[in-house]
Amino acid sequence: MLDSDRIPRHRRNPPSLPTRGGALKLLAGAALSTLTSCNDGAPTVRYQSGAAKLPTALGSQIYPSDDVARSLGLLAAMGATYVRASATLPLAFLDALFGAATQQGIRVVLLSAYAAQPVDSAAYAAAVAQVHVRYAAANPIWEVWNEPDLAQYWNGPPDVLVYLEVLAATAKALRAAGATDIWTGGTSGVDLNWIYNLVARGAFQSATGCAVHSYKPPGFARTEYIQAASFLPAGIGLHTTETCIASSAGSQSDFFDQMWYLHRELNLPTLLWCEFRDGTAGDTPPFNEAYGLVGPDYSPKSVYFAAQSLVRTDD
After folding, report:
1. DSSP of 227-264, one letter per residue?
2. Cα-Cα-Cα-Cα dihedral of 270, 142, 168, 2, to 10°?
């Protein structure tokens, strides 16, 4: 059985492990604050040093407290073509999301549920495929499990072999339901060991893309991205399905600029911001971490305009 109460902003974590908000504070507060100081030696990413041939799709995560029509309209105006959401959200919210996304020409990335261990792979796969059938006309992209390389989200010691069983069963069921794009679950950071083991054990016979989450200063993350991409078979994209910095941790605009340049330089196909609107991310209310591209009242922040400008001027 799937635990339908487990969605990205309400993650139940063991007391000994950091919460989602705590983890983001550690990453964004400690490492990313260097963006506004001396960069602590972080190299500057220069897009002109690369020769990007493929487009990079921009998008963001949204949450159930967001106004779907308003959020999708602002995303479209920014130049975004993806929106990410948990597949465990209420169907009324997902129905509205897919309706607005279709109107705006935005594609939905659905994040599959967490489940208790041991996972019943067949039941898990059937439940995911059932959601896809409902939205098959929009052909959502699927990200199978969030950060399965972390114990707190895998609900036990991470096990790449068990994850591969879940992935294979889910991908098979999704394909039978008509899905065409199935990505491995985004790793916590660019987890080179996990990604290497996925490749070595045939994960991309099932999946069509590899998802990662990165909150490091882009200059420091660059080498990890290069290594991860080098592991992947031809035709398998490396997709950033979570990245961001809180306003309190440094310049969001500078961070976005550098992350965008990194993706363009390395021909990375996807960059999804972790939160669209301030006040929606975290583990428990009041969700007051300011990671968003817009404020609580949907007023665009400077990072929104920075992203809009880069997408519009990208060649």
Report:
1. HHHHHSPTT-EEEEEEE---GGGS-HHHHHHHHHHHHH
2. 140
Question: How many structural domains is the chain composed of?
Answer: 1
Using an 8 Å Cβ cutoff, are 87 and 128 in contact? yes
∠ CA 213-216-219, nearest 5°, is 120
In a domain, 42, yes or no: no
Q: Is 18 domain-assigned?
A: no
Structure tokens at 234: 């031809």
- Would you state the pLDDT for residue 52? 57
CATH for 64: 3.20.20.80
Q: Which residues contact 172 (CB under 8 A, 6 or more apart)?
A: 125, 206
Phi/psi-derived region of residue 273, left when phi > 0, alpha when psi is between -120 and 50, beta in every other case = beta
What residues are paired with 183 via a beta bridge?
143, 209
**Model pLDDT for residues 129-172, shown as the tens digit of each residue:** 999 999 999 999 999 999 999 999 999 999 999 999 999 999 99
Please give the torsion angle defined by the CA atoms of residues 274, 279, 280 and 285, in that order, rounded to the nearest 10 degrees.
130
The two three-digit tokens of residue 53, written as one number: 């041939």
Q: Is 30 left (phi over 0), alpha (psi -120 to 50) or beta?
A: alpha
Look up residue 191 and give its two tokens: 């987890």
What is the pLDDT, as a whole number, of residue 27?
40
Domain around 261: 57-276+287-313
44 in any annotated domain: no
- Direct distance between the N- and C-terminal alpha carbons of the chain, in angstroms, rounded to an integer: 46
pLDDT score recorded for residue 186: 98
Confidence of residue 43 (pLDDT cuts 50, 70, 90): confident
Once rounded to an integer, what is the mean pLDDT over residues 74-102? Answer: 98
Q: How far is CA 293 from CA 60, 198, 278, in A?
A: 9, 33, 7
- Residue 101 falls inside a structural domain: yes
